[in-house]
Amino acid sequence: MTTLNVLFLCTHNSARSILSEALLNHMATGASGTRFKAFSAGSSPRENQQPNPLGLQVLKSAGIDTSYLSSKSWDEFAKPDAPHMDLVITVCDNAAGEVCPYWPGQPATAHWGYADPSAVEGSDEDRLVAFRNTLYMIQKRLQLLVDLPADKLQKTMLQHTARELSQGHA
């Protein structure tokens, strides 16, 4: 079985894209091996950007490894030695509207928009609830992706399938 490389993009690469990367990597290994390898990046991460601590807390509470997560620019994945991407998914509306770098191999692309949990104001508990809700919404869509039969993940079908998942069906 071929492992599909999936890149999740957001503006700062601190919340939604990090949650998506960690969750898909956690879900990707099954009885038939690793079907997906997830990565994340941002179109314009701030200087010294780090993953949002509340996002890391929610992931750890769900039993998901966060030790390898870091915020980085999408330019990292446009370099010649970068992993080849099969699917590039924007998870915030800002990144979806930006001109992306050229991705070698013309990967399938899709936009799966989620509200920014780091923009929620209120108590720490309110903010944690926002991160938990975002993680849950991402998990529902990723479960649909992970459960897809192999024929829906072939390069010729991947573009159509990824965009259908943005509508909640495949």
UniProtKB/TrEMBL annotation:
Q: State the CDD domains in the record.
A: LMWP_ArsC (cd16345)
Q: Boundaries of each Phosphotyrosine protein phosphatase I domain copy?
A: 4-148
Q: Which keywords does this chain's UniProt record carry?
A: Arsenical resistance
- GO biological process: one example: response to arsenic-containing substance
What InterPro entries does the record point to? Ptyr_pPase, Ptyr_pPase_sf
The record's section on Gene3D superfamilies has:
3.40.50.2300
- Output the superkingdom of the source species: Bacteria
PANTHER family recorded: ARSENATE REDUCTASE
Protein name in the entry: Protein-tyrosine-phosphatase
* Organism of derivation: Limnohabitans curvus
